[in-house]
Amino acid sequence: NAGRTKVHRHTAHLAMAPGSSEHLVETTLQAARDELVRGLGGLLGRPVPVRDAPGGRIPAGAVVAGTPASSPVIRRSVPAQDLAPLGDDGYLLRSVRGATVIAGNTDLAVLYGTFAFLRRLQTRQAITPLDVSSAPRIRRRYLNYWETERLYAGNNATGTGGLNGENGAIFDFTATGASAALNLPVILDRYLVAARAMASVGINGITINNVNANSFYLTAAAIKQEAALADALRPYGIRLAVSVNYAAPTDARFAPDTLTREQLDPYSAQFRDWWARRARQLQAAIPDFIGFTVKANSEGQPGPQDLGYDHRDGANALAAAVAPLGMRIFWRTFVYNAEVDRDRLKRPYLEFGPLDGKFAENVFIQTKNGPLDYQAREPVHPLFARMEHTDQAIELQITQEYTGQNTMLCYLGPLWEEVLKADTYATDEHGRLLPRRRVGDIVEGTTRDRPDSAIIGVANLGNATNLTGHHFAQANFFAFGRLAWDWTAESGRIAEDWVRMTWGHHPDVVRTIVAMMAGSREAVVNYQTPLGVAHQFRSSDHYGPAPGERLSRDDWSPVYYNQADTAGLGYDRSPTGSGFTAQYFPVLAARYGDIDRVPEELLMWFHHVPWDRRLRSGRIFWDELVSRYDLGVGYVTWMRHAWDSLATRLDARRFAEVKAKLAAHETDAAGWRDTCVGYWKQFSGREVPADGPLSV
Ligand code: GCU
């Protein structure tokens, strides 16, 4: 029934990027039109006729896309009151007299609706009769792209090797130290492929550089090139931001417009004016520029504390500088100054908690899902419930820094679903439970009637053909976008959509791959950090295990997190330990603080557990611990066999690529188990139980 396609467009002008075969589109409706033509043609296996600006009778089976402003057909066939609740980004798909309309209030909503319609076709959902509408729960659905030192999805940014070879940085620019270069304005095909991938799941902004920010991105030369990127991404509804260094004004690259260290005082006019000048330059080149992401006084980055001020002073200074331009500041809470408390987990709240409600209107504080650093499982960050008078963006990591990088198959949907649906049990001043205090409720801002809201994914885009390296890393990109749009969605359903769109519809394929994905994250938890023992990673690459590693900083050392001794294992954060549990509201504080009540999967986040303590399985802690490692490795072995069973149902190249990854995955999972169990054994003084094998 989707045999004919009609969409409106404002312009017929197509430009080719130098050295590029992808079309640069100029308008969002043109992008929607291209997607329909390409998507329907591909799905139906034949070209679809296109009519621009159709008038008169619409033939049955046609697809009409547009806004009431751009299309008389939409104006006639979709009552205004049906579009009103959809806001700027929401779309409506509806069967109207034998045709299908894709409508929204804005061109971007039409593009989102187009992708949603194609997804329905591709996942084989009914398209007649159709009457669905969908609007995002969170307004800003951004990526933070880190062209980092380790580029966790694969290669490192300079392309000089790294862990897994094939996936270097997506943007062809490097900014290391003072030497920095952008190869823009050449728009490579893959930027547009990425833009389409982002738009297809509703991502509408991207911070293009590492949080450990190089000030190059603020120079006039860089801004010119960033503007070219912004122009290319704009039709897809993707706006740009950059990460900045608080001390950028002292950087010699801005000479003669530089400040002294003393002038970094957040209340000085020079400091604010300097940032206002940069912001004006950016806005002149990129009219819809979002603003700045800031990592300050964190891991050696400069910040307002260097001059005796706090995070609010710093954030509000930058916010004041950019507010007249309508820009935002995303100020990260990933701080762990060792002078604040011995327990690293307590530090962000101790620094930020007292500042709740004191941030400027155009500031988001940006907080990772958990209080440590993207482990495969963490308790929720206590800040979400405690900073309710502040706009809070949640920062999730799509790229798999601690969850197997580009080697391990780890579907992160269940992790994010767990976090977003986690109840904080926040109470009012009388101790009464407040309604709707799941993390997702707080982030979407409805609990306090805030129109603005943000969710951030640290991106895994690379230069591989599939943008992510490991084929299954794409599922994480996809799931992030879908949950950013609607955090109440089920990660299992999202996985099924992805499998159908990526691997096919044969029942064996769908059932097997969805099942593999469903347990893959729990498997990583089990063979890396079971029962809540955190951060046992080798410091060099954050990939393999190093439970005995002792580094220059306590809080970078696996031994600090595991606290292994002959009595037991785990970090005591209960009221008799570090007292971290008190940062949660009473229900969670009581639950986590009591070794008899804490969920076993979080056990060692909160308690130093005696080796012979009896757990719910009936086994003593030591035996249970070892069995969890085995369980995790066993799951990977099962995934390898399950994948093999699909050999005849999948295309040979991708089948072989994933097969090779699974083999490496299994070896490395077993390595985690053997290294960790071997190390713990020295403290427990116990034997490995006879009922579990200890190597693959
Ligand atoms: C992790 C990561 C760093 C990153 C930091 C952050 O620690 O290893 O590369 O800079 O997170 O979130 O700021």
Provide a descriptive summary of the structure in words.
The chain is built from 20 helices and 19 strands. It starts with a strand and ends in a 12-residue tail after the last helix. α1 (28-44) packs parallel to α4 and α19 runs antiparallel to α20. The strands form five sheets. An eight-stranded parallel barrel has the order 8-11-12-13-14-15-16-17. The protein is of the alpha/beta class. The chain has three domains: 4-134, Chitobiase/beta-hexosaminidase domain 2-like (Chitobiase, domain 2, 2-Layer Sandwich), CATH 3.30.379.10; 145-501, Glycosidases (TIM Barrel), CATH 3.20.20.80; 523-571 and 608-684, Alpha-glucuronidase, C-terminal domain (Alpha-d-glucuronidase, C-terminal Domain, Alpha-Beta Complex), CATH 3.90.1330.10. Bound molecules: alpha-D-glucopyranuronic acid (GCU). Alpha-D-glucopyranuronic acid binds at residues 148, 211-212, 295, 299, 334, 373, 542.
What is the correct CATH architecture of the largest domain? Alpha-Beta Barrel
Mean pLDDT across every amino acid position: 91
Total number of strands: 19
Q: CATH topology of the largest domain, which one?
A: TIM Barrel
Shape annotation: globular
Q: How would a crystallographer describe the biggest sheet?
A: 8 strands, parallel, barrel
By CATH reckoning, the class of the largest domain would read: Alpha Beta
Write down the domain tally: 3
CATH superfamily grouping of the largest domain = Glycosidases
Parts with pLDDT < 50 across at least 5 consecutive residues: 1-22, 155-165
Helix percent band: 25-40%
Radius of gyration: 26 Å
Instruction: Give me the secondary-structure category.
Output: alpha/beta
Strand order of the largest sheet: 8-11-12-13-14-15-16-17
How far apart lie the N and C ends? 52 Å
The hetero molecules present are: alpha-D-glucopyranuronic acid
State the helix count.
Answer: 20
